[in-house]
Write a structure and sequence with these properties.
Distance between the termini: 45 Å
Strand order of the largest sheet: 7-6-8
Order of helices and strands: HHHEHHHHEHEHHHEHEHHEEEEHHHHHHH
Number of domains: 2
Keywords: Lipoprotein
CATH architecture of the largest domain: Alpha Horseshoe
InterPro entries: SusD-like_2, TPR-like_helical_dom_sf
Number of strands: 9
Strand content: under 5%
Helix content: 40-55%
CATH class of the largest domain: Mainly Alpha
Protein name: SusD/RagB family nutrient-binding outer membrane lipoprotein
Number of helices: 21
CATH topology of the largest domain: Serine Threonine Protein Phosphatase 5, Tetratricopeptide repeat
Structural class: mainly alpha
Shape: globular
Pfam families: SusD-like_2
Length: about 500
């Protein structure tokens, strides 16, 4: 509740200054009465996990599915639909979908306003850390993006920033995180307007190290030595310590969760839990299944207006490779509902799909599982088995933060871990399959770690109308507008990294 109240207070404060940010090229520093912490909190709030990430990233890794095309086109049909591939760019970089208040623009403004202000040193370094998070998502999604000149049009006058090589961006993200961690100082002003930690410096340092670990593990195929060095530094520095350190935005009935809106409004009869995800949870008798997935008697109605089947054995995921005209021919088709939808399992709208539920960006569970992999590879001196168990248990315990009814009893957690023990021979598969589960609803992170690790092993979606030649989508495509508005820099990026299509790999994604 405390975080909700803080969120409401920050959003209310920002309503008075939205007019000062109507254009990405407007100078935010002109409004001298705006405390930069409000820009920072708005950047946090606007780091949106957009609904379209369910059509691409979450569908690529086969967690969420829909048989429909049109505005729902994505990895379900393995087609390039740029109205949906562009959303991370529009929300996080240009800010077009955030009233021109994208986090990159706002964080760049905060950095500009606070870099010479010794009294706001913590706000400066917190902004560096969160900016690194946002840029990692952008690079992981698209590859080369504007970075060194990004968000600086009002400072430098450069409205057409060049795209920077993705490997160079990653290298600078490491420098930014290391510098920010070192610069945070608990003796300086505590920035209580921070939506994540209310300015707690120790927690921000842990987040910095956790992001350093996440970045480091992305190098596991391309530069194992660098991956090891960064994993060691993060582990020794101190990463997230419990679920209390989870990085999240807690929404409310007024400021609602974008994904919650997706599950509960116009698309509620159109989206289903993917068959591979349901099958994996069922195969391991995972108690998270009935927290995440239910079958509604009439998917087009609200939960209180229809029957809800929470029975573990009755959950059926929607298979990939079909559209709304062919899904009826899928094996073991459970039937169509006359009022709209199908009898497949859907997101539980009273737990993980609530409109006032939280969004998670970086979690203790994810971090422990990355450490487990580092330990399994011999990169840190720790027990991979213990870290694996801690990570799995952390995600199961995280469920109660969606709703009290989602609480998984400790006895159920203990029974699961006893029945699914860590085995070194299958360590990478077990760890990264659990990371896949722990990243459910964070499509960009689930997609990135699946590409990096190769786990879980998924069966390619061979939809007949697909436009990709290979088995899986490997990156998303830039907004079409970039081809004309910033043509020279766009073309240079494409020439450098490869075609602007769904199959060009980002630099760390090696076969």
């Amino acid at each position: 509740m405390k975080k909700i109240l803080i969120l409401l207070a920050m959003a209310a404060g920002l309503s008075s200054c939205d007019k000062d940010f109507e254009n990405i090229n407007t100078n935010p520093t002109q409004s001298t009465n705006i405390d930069p912490v409000y820009l920072f909190s708005n950047a946090q709030l606007n780091t949106t996990l957009a609904s379209q990430t369910m059509f691409y990233e979450a569908a690529i890794v086969q967690q969420v599915n829909t048989p429909f095309g049109g505005v729902n086109t994505g990895a379900n049909l393995n087609q390039d639909y740029r109205d949906n591939t562009r959303v991370n760019w529009l929300y996080l970089y240009s800010g077009t979908n955030n009233g021109n208040n994208g986090p990159i623009k706002l964080l760049t403004a905060v950095l500009d306003q606070t870099k010479a202000d010794s009294s706001r040193t913590n706000l400066y370094h917190m902004s560096r850390i969160w900016r690194a998070y946002v840029f990692q998502v952008l690079v992981d999604t698209y590859g080369d993006v504007p970075y060194f000149d990004a968000g600086k049009a009002y400072i430098s006058g450069n409205k057409l920033p060049k795209y920077d090589p993705q490997a160079e961006i990653y290298a600078d993200l490491v420098k930014e995180l290391e510098g920010a961690i070192a610069g945070l100082n608990a003796a300086k002003r505590i920035e209580t307007g921070d939506l994540f930690y209310q300015g707690n410096v120790a927690k921000w340092k842990r987040l910095g190290y956790s992001l350093l670990l996440r970045i480091g593990m992305r190098y596991s195929k391309t530069d194992p030595a660098k991956a090891q060095a960064l994993a060691q530094k993060a582990y020794q520095g101190g990463v997230l310590q419990s679920n209390d350190d989870n990085v999240r935005i807690q929404y409310s009935s007024i400021y609602t969760n974008p994904l919650g809106n997706l599950w509960n409004n116009t698309e509620k009869a159109n989206l289903y839990v993917g068959a591979p995800f349901v099958s994996y949870l069922k195969s391991t008798n995972d108690p998270r299944l009935t927290v995440i997935a239910v079958r509604y008697g009439e998917p087009s109605k609200n939960p209180e207006q229809t029957t809800v089947d929470r029975t573990f054995a009755n959950q059926i995921g929607m298979p990939f490779g079909y559209d709304d005209g062919s899904i009826g021919s899928a094996p073991n088709f459970p039937g169509k509902v006359a009022s709209g939808g199908w009898n497949y399992s859907q997101i539980n709208r009273r737990t993980v799909g609530k409109v006032d539920g939280p969004t998670y960006y970086v979690t203790y569970a994810q971090t422990q599982l990355l450490l487990a992999e580092a330990a399994q590879r011999g990169w840190i001196q720790a027990s991979a088995a213990d870290l694996y168990k801690t990570g799995v248990a952390a995600h199961m315990n995280q469920m109660k933060d969606y709703d009290a009814s989602a609480t998984i009893p400790q006895t159920a957690i203990d029974e699961y871990l006893a029945a699914q023990p860590y085995t070194a021979a299958r360590g990478l598969e077990q760890i990264n399959s659990q990371y896949w589960v722990a990243s459910f609803l964070n499509g960009p992170e689930a997609f990135a770690n699946w590409r990096r690790s190769g786990f879980p092993v998924l069966t390619p979606n061979k939809y007949p109308g697909r436009t990709i030649a290979g088995d899986f989508i490997r990156r998303l495509t830039y907004p079409i507008l970039e081809q004309s508005v910033n043509a020279e820099n766009y073309n240079a990026a494409v020439s450098r990294q490869g075609p602007d299509d769904l199959e060009t790999r980002v630099f760390w994604d090696k076969p």
